[in-house]
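Tokenised fold entry reproduced for absentees:

. . .
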Amino acid sequence: MKSLSTQQIEHLRLLMLSIKDKLEEQLNANLQATAIVKLDQSSVGRVSRIDAIQQQHMAVSTRGKTKQRLGKILLTLQTVKQDDYGYCRRCDQVIAFERLCIQPESELCLQCQSQLEG
């Protein structure tokens, strides 16, 4: 498989910058949802407290996943600058452009990813 073209790499770089902006917006919007739950126990029922705590836990989990993906996007943007982007970390073959369009932070080609999950 031939290397990614300059136009393809630029398309993916712009895609990652867009994803980065969206993830940062999500983190900012999610900040209040992850705050410590403080409810007046005399005016709020037990079920409402449990529900609020459960929603907080889900927001914390979502925030963690968002931070993790943002970190991967930022690292991948660095590999674009180093001209090392688009190659599988396991077999050193070019990762398909179509795969990178779906998940631009992919570090493995589809075959190596399938073998790891297999």
The two ends are 23 Å apart (CA to CA). Residues 6-84 form one domain. The chain has four helices and no strands.
